[in-house]
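lol forgot to send this yesterday, sorry. struct tokens for the thing we talked abt
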């Protein structure tokens, strides 16, 4: 196991001063999964890389997806075979890179009277899916009879269900996947900074050769030089193209996707289900630990990109979809424990609705050399990164006076930070071992599963920190050990970074957030030596976030 590389805002001033003095081969704007993937790909090929993110890492789209590494079965209906083939093949690769974080998840596609998918179309579609994605062994699709489908998921409507398709996907924590890509890039010499916004570009001979960065923690502005700049800013790509005066031709089309979270006892699906909605769309219901989450919507979005919320209409739509599919379930608004809403930065196509737009990625290069990438899916992040770095490598070879050959992509074989596992069986064995070590302190099998599927073998460092701490409340002690690790090795700056993007607790264990909020805020104030006003602001912001993610009472209307 490789020791974690310090990655902290405790030495931020030194870091900012250092990057201002250096000349980078590549600056990547955007600390989501695409930017994180590009940073790792480029750094592992030997380039000197700096990643800049205006908020926290993965704070945009990359913490608000359906959290599936999946092949996009529905794109077969759009005859998008290339996309299905690429992302389908990538599922197994990303699982291999981090089997503790990208977990096997069988998916049930019920065949319903009057539904979108008939038996023949489903059978052929899943077979094509298997072929395109090169699926093998037990992961190959199966067609189930009615009795088999109901045995797997008894909540399905007995009168309407005729059978089901059964196929393999993978589930992940998108924010953790993003972070582990960034942390792995550090092992190859990359630098990365959150809360660092690019507000302008530097030009030499009419070509982009660096950026002006505003440090949102200090208020300071610094200039950083680079041979190439890539914008992987997701929904904000067009803003940066505007600053670069290159916003012409194709443009972004933002759509909003919403997910709502219920206690598992309220929606006790035994496994993931991909099911019909009366309007012709498809919805996922995915069990995860203590909860089941449901999504997603797909609607056009033109409002504030920094403040995307789940509204009453979104919640009603998803609840109606669940209640319509599962006759024994009667979910209500007050059953919602948490929710999240994110944006898809798709490429605009005239005359197409939100759900018809292609999920393909595209790369734009401005006359001044700014490279921008938009579109794409979480599952395809590694190939998107490879295409961007290939383009930079080609430009380097063309522009360098001396021949400079950039190495080929190697990310297909690079285990991500936290992974010391060759197969998922080893992950399960490791979880069992962690449980044996923590159960005497009152922790459950869920706690062991959570630790390992969040941190992998980095759990060892967290357990060491746990054993060194003195708090009597064991749950708080473990959370504060995680926080200590997060501040030292994961650039945690605020309670929101910790509860939302490093641990996922806001979405999947919101009750623990309520009990841990005060000790976490207090500990952060101690670590960063902030004023009392900062502590109060953090607590107020957390209260607001808790309310906005879980309160869908009529008073909000």
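and heres what i got for the seq, position by position
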């Amino acid at each position: 196991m490789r020791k974690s590389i310090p990655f902290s805002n405790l030495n931020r001033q030194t870091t900012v001063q250092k990057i201002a003095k250096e000349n980078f081969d590549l600056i990547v704007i955007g600390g989501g999964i695409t930017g994180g993937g590009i940073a790792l790909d480029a750094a592992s090929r030997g380039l000197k890389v700096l990643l800049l993110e205006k908020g926290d890492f993965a704070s945009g789209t990359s913490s608000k997806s359906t959290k599936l590494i999946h092949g996009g079965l529905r794109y077969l209906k759009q005859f998008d075979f290339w996309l299905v083939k690429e992302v389908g093949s990538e599922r197994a690769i990303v699982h291999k890179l981090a089997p503790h974080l990208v977990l096997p998840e069988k998916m049930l596609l019920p065949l319903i009277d009057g539904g979108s998918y008939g038996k023949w179309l489903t059978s052929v579609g899943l077979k094509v899916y298997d072929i395109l994605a090169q699926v093998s062994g037990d992961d190959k699709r199966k067609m189930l009879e009615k009795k088999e489908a109901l045995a797997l998921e008894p909540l399905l409507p007995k009168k309407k269900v005729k059978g089901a398709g059964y196929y393999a996907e993978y589930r992940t924590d998108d924010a953790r996947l993003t972070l582990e890509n960034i942390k792995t890039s550090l092992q190859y010499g990359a630098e990365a900074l959150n809360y660092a916004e690019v507000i302008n570009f530097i030009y030499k001979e009419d070509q982009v050769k660096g950026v002006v960065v505003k440090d949102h923690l200090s208020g300071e502005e610094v200039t950083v030089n680079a041979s190439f700049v890539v914008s992987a800013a997701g929904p904000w790509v067009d803003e940066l193209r505007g600053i670069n005066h290159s916003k012409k031709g194709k443009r972004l089309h933002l759509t909003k996707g919403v997910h709502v979270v219920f206690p598992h006892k309220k929606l006790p699906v035994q496994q993931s289900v991909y099911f019909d909605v009366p309007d012709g769309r498809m919805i996922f219901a995915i069990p995860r630990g203590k909860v089941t989450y449901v999504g997603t919507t797909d609607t056009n979005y033109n409002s504030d990109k920094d403040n995307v919320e789940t509204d009453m209409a979104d919640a009603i739509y998803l609840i109606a979809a669940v209640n319509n599919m599962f006759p024994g379930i009667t979910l209500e608004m007050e059953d919602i424990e948490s929710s999240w809403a994110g944006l898809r930065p798709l490429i605009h196509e005239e005359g197409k609705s939100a759900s018809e737009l292609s999920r393909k990625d595209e790369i734009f290069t401005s006359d001044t050399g700014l490279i921008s990438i938009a579109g794409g899916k979480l599952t395809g992040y590694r190939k998107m990164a490879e295409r961007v770095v290939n383009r930079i490598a080609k430009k380097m070879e063309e522009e360098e006076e001396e021949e400079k050959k950039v190495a080929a992509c190697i990310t297909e074989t690079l285990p991500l930070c936290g992974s010391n596992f060759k197969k998922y069986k080893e992950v399960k064995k490791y979880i069992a071992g962690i449980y044996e070590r923590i159960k005497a302190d009152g922790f459950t099998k869920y706690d062991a599963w959570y630790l390992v599927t969040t941190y992998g073998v980095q759990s060892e460092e967290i357990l060491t920190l746990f054993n060194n701490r003195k708090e009597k409340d064991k749950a708080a002690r473990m959370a504060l050990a995680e926080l200590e690790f997060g501040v030292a090795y994961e650039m945690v700056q605020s309670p929101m970074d910790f509860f939302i993007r490093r641990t996922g607790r806001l979405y999947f264990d919101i009750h623990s957030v309520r009990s841990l909020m005060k000790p976490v805020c207090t500990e952060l104030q101690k670590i960063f030596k902030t004023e009392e006003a900062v502590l109060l602001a953090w607590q107020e912001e957390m209260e607001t976030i808790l309310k906005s993610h879980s309160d869908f009472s009529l008073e909000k209307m």
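Residues 255 and 429 are 41 Å apart (CA to CA). anyway ping me if u want another try
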